[in-house]
Design a protein that fits this description.
91 residues, mainly beta, 6 strands, globular
Length: 91
């Protein structure tokens, strides 16, 4: 089975900021992850990525915020999206 694009969306939040959300369903978990999703969720402000959630191959789920990388414990896709939007609200 090939990867299936579930969501690809860019949402303009203001004159200088936007969110981009990309989620794929994959046949095999990305190395470092235990689920069947590959994702990238970013907040860009003034052309700078200030927040990113992703599950890069070999690293598993993690987020980048304010120059700090922290691991992220994925539970469900809905919870991931909720956690991302909660963090977006702090910027």
């Amino acid at each position: 089975m090939k990867a299936t694009l579930l969501q690809k969306e860019r949402i303009k939040l203001g004159e200088d900021r936007f969110v981009e959300i990309v989620v794929w369903q994959v046949a095999q978990p990305v190395p470092g992850s235990a689920h069947s999703f590959k994702y990238r969720m970013v907040l860009v402000v003034s052309e700078v990525c200030v927040l990113r959630y992703d599950n890069e191959s070999g690293k598993g789920g993690h987020k980048h915020s304010g120059g700090i990388e922290a691991s992220y414990a994925f539970s469900t896709l809905d919870q991931l999206v909720e956690d991302f939007w909660t963090d977006v609200a702090t910027f």
